Amino acid sequence: MEPLEGTNDTVQLGHADRRVHCAAYALDGNDAGCIADARHHAATFLGEAGTRHRLPVSQRVRDLTALVVSELVTNAHKYAPGPVLMELRIHAGSVEVSVCDTRPAVPAVRGVDPGRIGQHGMEIIQALADRLSIEPRPDGKRITALLSLTGATSPA
User: Fold this and answer.
1) Which H helix or E strand runs over 144?
2) 48-74, pLDDT tens digit by residue?
3) Of 113, 106, 112, which Cα lies nearest the Cα of 140?
4) How far apart are CA 55 and CA 13, in angstroms?
5) What count of other Cβ atoms lies within 10 Å of the Cβ of residue 51?
6) CA nearest 52: which of 10, 14, 5?
7) Tell me: the pLDDT tens digits for 106-128?
8) What is the pTM of this model?
9) How would you list the strands of the sheet with 83-91, edge to edge?
10) N or C: which end of the chain has fewer CB within 10 A?
11) Pairing state of beta strands 83-91 and 94-101?
Protein backbone atom coordinates (compact mmCIF):
# COMPACT_ATOMS: atom_id res chain seq x y z
CA MET A 1 0.00 0.00 0.00
CA GLU A 2 1.12 3.52 -0.69
CA PRO A 3 0.99 6.39 1.79
CA LEU A 4 -2.36 8.13 1.91
CA GLU A 5 -2.49 11.13 -0.39
CA GLY A 6 -0.70 14.15 1.07
CA THR A 7 0.36 12.54 4.32
CA ASN A 8 4.08 11.90 3.82
CA ASP A 9 5.55 15.24 4.76
CA THR A 10 8.26 17.06 6.65
CA VAL A 11 7.48 20.27 8.48
CA GLN A 12 9.94 22.72 10.02
CA LEU A 13 9.05 23.76 13.56
CA GLY A 14 11.25 26.80 13.94
CA HIS A 15 14.66 25.18 14.39
CA ALA A 16 16.52 23.02 11.85
CA ASP A 17 16.90 20.25 14.42
CA ARG A 18 13.19 20.14 15.29
CA ARG A 19 11.80 18.58 12.12
CA VAL A 20 8.70 16.46 11.81
CA HIS A 21 8.51 13.60 9.33
CA CYS A 22 5.16 11.81 9.09
CA ALA A 23 3.24 9.33 6.96
CA ALA A 24 -0.04 7.41 7.14
CA TYR A 25 -0.83 4.05 5.59
CA ALA A 26 -4.19 2.35 5.02
CA LEU A 27 -3.89 -1.39 5.59
CA ASP A 28 -6.35 -4.19 4.94
CA GLY A 29 -6.80 -5.65 8.42
CA ASN A 30 -8.58 -8.69 6.97
CA ASP A 31 -5.41 -9.76 5.12
CA ALA A 32 -2.61 -11.31 7.21
CA GLY A 33 -0.15 -9.72 4.76
CA CYS A 34 -0.96 -6.35 6.34
CA ILE A 35 1.52 -7.12 9.14
CA ALA A 36 4.46 -7.54 6.74
CA ASP A 37 3.23 -4.51 4.76
CA ALA A 38 3.24 -2.42 7.96
CA ARG A 39 6.81 -3.48 8.84
CA HIS A 40 7.92 -2.66 5.29
CA HIS A 41 6.29 0.79 5.47
CA ALA A 42 7.95 1.46 8.84
CA ALA A 43 11.39 0.46 7.51
CA THR A 44 10.96 2.66 4.43
CA PHE A 45 9.69 5.56 6.56
CA LEU A 46 12.64 5.38 8.96
CA GLY A 47 15.07 4.99 6.06
CA GLU A 48 13.72 8.18 4.48
CA ALA A 49 13.92 9.97 7.80
CA GLY A 50 17.59 9.08 8.05
CA THR A 51 18.71 9.65 4.47
CA ARG A 52 16.34 12.23 3.04
CA HIS A 53 15.66 14.29 6.15
CA ARG A 54 18.92 13.64 8.04
CA LEU A 55 17.18 12.62 11.22
CA PRO A 56 19.20 10.25 13.44
CA VAL A 57 17.66 6.76 13.37
CA SER A 58 19.80 3.97 14.81
CA GLN A 59 19.42 0.29 13.93
CA ARG A 60 18.18 -0.29 17.47
CA VAL A 61 15.37 2.24 16.97
CA ARG A 62 14.52 0.62 13.62
CA ASP A 63 14.32 -2.80 15.28
CA LEU A 64 12.20 -1.56 18.21
CA THR A 65 9.87 0.29 15.85
CA ALA A 66 9.46 -2.82 13.69
CA LEU A 67 8.57 -4.86 16.77
CA VAL A 68 6.02 -2.32 18.03
CA VAL A 69 4.48 -2.00 14.55
CA SER A 70 4.27 -5.80 14.28
CA GLU A 71 2.56 -6.19 17.65
CA LEU A 72 0.05 -3.35 17.11
CA VAL A 73 -0.92 -4.38 13.58
CA THR A 74 -1.07 -8.06 14.56
CA ASN A 75 -3.54 -7.18 17.34
CA ALA A 76 -5.63 -5.12 14.93
CA HIS A 77 -5.63 -7.97 12.38
CA LYS A 78 -6.57 -10.61 14.98
CA TYR A 79 -9.19 -8.71 16.98
CA ALA A 80 -10.61 -5.91 14.80
CA PRO A 81 -11.74 -7.00 11.36
CA GLY A 82 -11.70 -4.26 8.78
CA PRO A 83 -9.47 -1.40 7.80
CA VAL A 84 -6.42 -0.41 9.82
CA LEU A 85 -4.72 2.97 9.69
CA MET A 86 -1.06 3.17 10.70
CA GLU A 87 0.50 6.58 11.27
CA LEU A 88 4.21 7.12 11.78
CA ARG A 89 5.74 10.37 12.95
CA ILE A 90 9.17 11.55 14.06
CA HIS A 91 9.30 14.66 16.20
CA ALA A 92 11.15 16.03 19.20
CA GLY A 93 13.57 13.12 19.37
CA SER A 94 10.90 10.42 19.25
CA VAL A 95 9.23 7.99 16.86
CA GLU A 96 5.48 7.83 17.30
CA VAL A 97 3.60 4.76 16.05
CA SER A 98 -0.21 4.97 15.98
CA VAL A 99 -2.57 2.25 14.84
CA CYS A 100 -6.30 2.84 14.48
CA ASP A 101 -8.66 -0.10 14.18
CA THR A 102 -12.41 -0.76 14.25
CA ARG A 103 -12.70 -2.49 17.65
CA PRO A 104 -13.63 -0.13 20.50
CA ALA A 105 -12.55 -2.58 23.25
CA VAL A 106 -9.39 -1.50 25.06
CA PRO A 107 -6.76 -4.26 25.07
CA ALA A 108 -5.66 -5.51 28.46
CA VAL A 109 -2.03 -5.45 29.42
CA ARG A 110 -1.71 -8.73 31.29
CA GLY A 111 0.68 -9.40 34.10
CA VAL A 112 3.95 -11.14 33.42
CA ASP A 113 3.41 -14.89 33.02
CA PRO A 114 6.35 -16.75 31.46
CA GLY A 115 4.16 -19.87 31.21
CA ARG A 116 1.51 -18.17 29.07
CA ILE A 117 1.80 -18.90 25.38
CA GLY A 118 0.90 -15.89 23.28
CA GLN A 119 -0.98 -12.72 24.19
CA HIS A 120 2.17 -10.85 25.25
CA GLY A 121 1.87 -8.10 22.61
CA MET A 122 0.68 -5.25 24.81
CA GLU A 123 3.15 -6.32 27.51
CA ILE A 124 5.99 -6.03 24.99
CA ILE A 125 4.79 -2.66 23.69
CA GLN A 126 4.41 -1.27 27.20
CA ALA A 127 7.94 -2.41 28.09
CA LEU A 128 9.48 -0.81 25.00
CA ALA A 129 7.52 2.43 24.77
CA ASP A 130 8.41 5.62 26.61
CA ARG A 131 4.69 6.37 26.52
CA LEU A 132 1.67 4.27 25.55
CA SER A 133 -1.82 5.69 25.10
CA ILE A 134 -5.15 4.22 24.05
CA GLU A 135 -7.75 6.64 22.74
CA PRO A 136 -11.35 5.56 22.12
CA ARG A 137 -12.77 6.83 18.83
CA PRO A 138 -16.29 6.72 17.39
CA ASP A 139 -15.16 4.10 14.87
CA GLY A 140 -12.90 2.05 17.16
CA LYS A 141 -9.69 3.09 18.92
CA ARG A 142 -6.21 4.50 18.39
CA ILE A 143 -3.20 3.02 20.17
CA THR A 144 -0.07 5.17 20.17
CA ALA A 145 3.40 4.15 21.30
CA LEU A 146 6.20 6.70 21.62
CA LEU A 147 9.81 5.46 21.28
CA SER A 148 12.89 7.55 21.95
CA LEU A 149 15.20 8.07 18.94
CA THR A 150 18.15 7.83 21.30
CA GLY A 151 16.89 4.70 22.99
CA ALA A 152 18.10 6.12 26.30
CA THR A 153 14.93 5.24 28.24
CA SER A 154 13.93 2.07 26.39
CA PRO A 155 15.16 -1.31 27.64
CA ALA A 156 17.54 -3.41 25.56
Assistant:
1) strand 140-148
2) 998 888 888 999 999 999 999 999 999
3) 106
4) 14
5) 10
6) 10
7) 887 777 778 878 777 898 999 99
8) 0.82
9) 9-12, 19-28, 83-91, 94-101, 140-148, 131-137
10) C
11) antiparallel
